[in-house]
Amino acid sequence: MPISRRVLTPVAAVPVILAVFTFFFWSWIIGPEEIKGSKHVLQLAKTIPLPGVGPESLDFDPKGEGPYVGVTDGRILKWRGEELGWVEFAYTSPHRENCSRDEVVPSCGRPLGLSFHKKTGDLYICDGYFGVMKVGPEGGLAELVVGEVDGRKVMFANQMDIDEEEEVFYFNDSSEKYHFREVFYVSISQEKAGRVIRYDMKKKEAKVIMDKLQSPNGLALSKDGSFVVTAETGTYTIHRVWVKGPKAGTNEVFGKVPGSMDNIRRTPTGDFWVALHCKVSLFTRVFKIHPLVGKFFMKILKMETMIDLVNGGKPHGVAVKVSGETGEILETLEDSEGTTMKYVSEVYERDDGKIWFGSVYWPAVWVLDTSVV
């Protein structure tokens, strides 16, 4: 046999071998890893459809009415119950002519984290394009509160929490490079371009209290107001930033979770619910080996394809409760088949025995009775 043929034959076989391997092991490569001890109960939740898409965050007003949710086209909607349904409450941009129900239009804004100031009734909104905004109890057009910090534009305000005793709030700016529409690139690029910001509502002064984070997403204040937790989605890590007491000004790792995090909400007892967009898989571990790997996938694949792959081809719902004292995982709830819940972005437990769930991509919210947990 000629030397050229002896060399080329094994080389030519490589694509065939890869194709066969991929065919038989594809589901194993992209399939989400199992979480030991999970309770598979989220499929029992009640679905409440929306006249819009992507209720990424939700909150209830000082009267207990709601929830209020922000959707893809820039509006804030309010739930008025089964008989009245959803009504329009507010919006973050006056430019409504080109807004789309299904796709984000930058000029329309994209409301993400929502937080009511219980004393004033004002609703604070983290908009993925404009910054932190505020609208009064009567709703309507929101006004800008924080648009830049330290001379740098707030590119991707994501979630916030308010300390009403101190009259300050904290929020995440998830990236100094990308806006919401490029949300997935923020995580897979592994760029340390996110920051946590403290805003003094009386002095109208903003200060960065932690930076160089890989896509910080969710944020919540502890029950006693001594620290803030922030979800670094790119590393599956929850950080604790001390804001009061002898440790004020320092930070530390608070906990780890088995997937890509979205929002964090404090429970009535002081623990935290963490919403997972998806669980960890072999595929997600591979593209996080090095920033160049993630950036390679960004170039060759569409964002929709990447989202499908990291979800294992099967969008699912996961919620993790972590201790408000130690950061350890207390319980995990799942709808691993995505029968009811998909792309869970927020888990909000109320003291009436109900847990509400938002979704960054789905046209619905869900509510679950804690008696089944």
What does this structure look like?
It is a single chain. With 373 residues, the chain is of the alpha+beta class. It is built from five helices and 27 strands. It has a single domain, classed as Neuraminidase (6 Propeller). It has a five-stranded mixed beta sheet, with no helix packed on it. A four-stranded antiparallel beta sheet has the order 1-27-26-25, with no helix packed on it. A four-stranded antiparallel beta sheet has the order 6-7-8-10, with no helix packed on it. The N terminus is likely disordered.
CATH-level-2 architecture: 6 Propeller
CATH class reads Mainly Beta
Average residue pLDDT: 89
Separation of the first and last Cα atoms: 68 Å
Count the domains: 1
* CATH superfamily caption: TolB, C-terminal domain
The number of helices is: 5
CA gyration radius, whole angstroms: 21 Å
The major sheet is characterized as: 5 strands, mixed
Which strand order do you get reading across the main beta sheet? 2-3-4-5-9
- Which regions contain 5 or more consecutive residues with pLDDT less than 50? 1-8, 11-24
Count of beta strands = 27
> How much β-strand is present in the residues?
35-45%
Q: What form results from the Cα inertia axes?
A: globular
Residues in helix, %: 10-25%
CATH topology: Neuraminidase
The SS-based structural class is alpha+beta
